[in-house]
Amino acid sequence: MAAVFGPKANLITKLVLLGAAAGLLTLFVGGWVFPSIDYYTRVGFVRPQPVPFSHEHHVGGLGLDCRYCHTSVEVSANAGMPPTHTCMTCHSQLWTNAEVLAPVRQSLATGEPIRWSRVYDLPDYVFFNHSIHVAKGVGCTTCHGQIDRMPLTWQASSLSMGWCLDCHRDPAPNLRPREEVFDTDWKPTPDTPTGEQLLAAYDIHPATLSDCSVCHR
Amino acid sequence: MTAAAFDETRRVLEPGVSETSVTDHVSDLVLERKTPAWWWIGFGLSLSLLLLFVVSLAWLFIRGVGIWGVGWPVAWGFAIGNYVWWVGMASGGTIISALFFLTRSEWRSATNRIAESMTVFCVACAGIMPVIHLGRWWYSYWLFPYPNTMGTWPQFRSPLHWDFVAILVYVIASVLFWYIGLIPDMATLRDRAVRRWQRVLYGILALGWQGSSLHWREYRSAYLVLAGLMAPLVISVHSIVGLDFAGGLVPGWHETQFPPYFVFGAVLSGFAVVLMLVIPLRRALDLDGVITPRHLDVLARLMLTTSLLIGYSYGLEIFMPFYRGEHAEITVVLSYLTGHYAPWYWAKIVLNAVIPQLLWFRAARLNQPVLFTIAAGVVVGMWIERYVIVVASLHRNHSESSWAVFTPTFWDWATLAGSAGLFLTGFFLLLRFIPMVSMFEMRELVRKKKREGGR
Fold this sequence. Notes:
The complex is a heterodimer.
Chain A: H1 8-36, H2 38-41, H3 55-61, H4 66-69, H5 84-91, H6 102-110, H7 130-135, H8 140-144, H9 161-169, H10 195-201, H11 206-209, H12 212-215
Chain B: H1 3-8, H2 19-31, H3 37-63, H4 78-102, H5 108-132, H6 159-192, H7 196-205, H8 213-246, H9 258-284, H10 293-324, H11 327-338, H12 342-354, H13 362-366, H14 368-394, H15 410-433, H16 439-452
Helix pairs in contact in B: 2-16, 3-15, 4-5, 4-8, 4-9, 4-14, 5-6, 5-9, 5-15, 6-7, 6-8, 8-9, 9-10, 9-14, 10-11, 10-12, 11-12, 12-14
C-alpha cells in the first residue's frame, strides 16, 4: 500500500501548528490590544453635530470661560449642555442669518432643544460626577484634551475603566490648584504646589478611590 | 466455592487471549465491524436527548435563568447539582486511569479507555453547567484572569473562581491524558485500516507515531508524569467543588469535611458509571476475554469501599451539628430527616450507603444484573445527594423569614436529561471510532503474564 501521507504532510503539520499559534495571538489581540486602541475607544473621532459648534472659536478665539456655557460643572454631577437661550445671548444679534445657525433659531422658535450628539458617553451604570473632580483640582483639559483648539469636539480620552483607575490610584500627577482648573493653557511652574501637597490640601485619599461604590452605585 | 471457580475471578485475562487476538478483535470492532443495530438505536435516542438539551439552552438564553425553579433563597438548583454530579462521575474515570496506573494495578489496563472516554464527556457536561447557570453567561470570560481595559481581575479568594480554574485545567488535562493514551492505538488502527478515510483519519490522530524505542521511552515518561499529575489533580478538583459549598456560611454547607466527602462521592459515582458502561459493553463488544469477572469484582469492591466512606461522611453530617449544638445546623439536619426534602434524603441514604452493602457478598459482586442495578442506583443516588446538599441546605437558612421551597420546572428536568444526551451522544460516537480497550497496554499485559508463566 502506498503511503497515506506524502512529504507535503510535514509542511501541513507545521502550518496547522502555526495556525494554532496564530489563533492564540488573535485571542490576545482581540481580547486586550484591540479594546485599547483609539479606533475602538473612539479617541480622536469627531461626531457629526446638528450645528458645527467650534470650541476653538468660542474658547480659544473669543476667550469664553468654560463655565459660561457649562454652568453647573462646579456644583452638579452633570456639567450641563447649554440651552438654546445661551447661544441666543449672542446669536440673536450676531450672524442672525447664518445658514449654519438655522437649527439654533429653529430651536428657539419651536422650543425643541437642539439634538446634540454626545461625545463623552459613559454607560448608565457609571455615575460620574463633574463637581467633585473640579473641586479636587482636576482641570478640564486633563480629561477633555486641548478643547480650546478643537474646531469640532472629539473625544480626547478613552474613558475605559482602566483609564479612570490609573488616575484614581495615583491622582497626584493630574492635579492642579483649584484656581487653574478652567485654564486651558495651564502649565505647572516652579511655584506650583506638588501633587502630594495638593493631595493633602484637598483631602484626597487614593486608597478608597478605587472602591466599586465610588462610581458604580 | 471450588478453587477453580475462585481462580476464575482472579484472572485479568482469560486463557487463550494473545497479543494478536486482542489487537485483531479490538481494532476490528472499530475498523471492520458493521455498525450494530443497538448502536443506531442508542445513538438515535442520545441524539434526541441532545436536541432537547439544545432546545433547553436556546430557551434559557432567550428567556434567562428564570425559566428554572431557582429564586430566593434557593438560588442554586439543578444546574449546580448537575455540575457536581457530572464532574464527580468524571473523577472516577480519572482515578481508575491515573491513580491505578501509578499503583500498577493489572486490572486497570482493560478498563482505562472506557473510564477515560467517560471522563472526557462527563467533564464536558460538567463544564457547561456553571456557565449556563450564570444570569449573564456571555460575560463568563470575565472569570479568566486576563489583562483588560477595565483594570479588573477575578476575585481569587472565591471558591467559584478556583472552580473555574479547576474545571478548565481538568477539561484540558483529561482530554490530553485520554488522547496521549490513544496515540499508539491510533497508529495501530492506521496501519491496519484498508479504507482510505480511515487511514487518513487515524494517520492524523496518530501524529506520526512509529513505535520506535525512542518514541516509547519518551512516551512512557510523559504518560507517567501525566498520571502523576492527574491523580492529585482529580482529588483537588473535587475538593474545590466541595469548597464551593464549604466556603459559604450556609448551615449544612459550612463543614470542614466537605472536600474529602465530595471526593468520596465523586469516586463512588465514577466507579458506578464505569461499571454501568463496562457490564453492557463487555457483552456488546465481545470483550469477555479481556474484561473478566476479576474486573467487575474489583470495581464492585471499590464501589463498596467508597460507599462505606460516604456512609461515614453521612454519619458525620448528622452527628456534628448536634455535637456542636448550633441551632441553624440542627434545623437543617432535622429538615433533611423529616422535612420537605426528606424523601430525597432517605433515597440518597438507601441508594448510596445501604444497598451497596450487598457488595460484601461475592455472589452479588459477580452477578452482573445485580451489580448493574446497584451501580445505577448509586448514580441516581449521587445525583440526589447533590440535589439535597444544594437545595435542602439553602431552603432552611439562618433567617426564618427567608425559608422557601425549591420546585424544579420542566426546563430544570429538560436540562438534566439533555446533558445526559450530550454525554451519551459523545460516548456513542467514541464507541464507534475509538478502540474501547487500550490495545498496546493489553499487549503489554499479555507479554507480562507470559513472562510470569501461566495465568
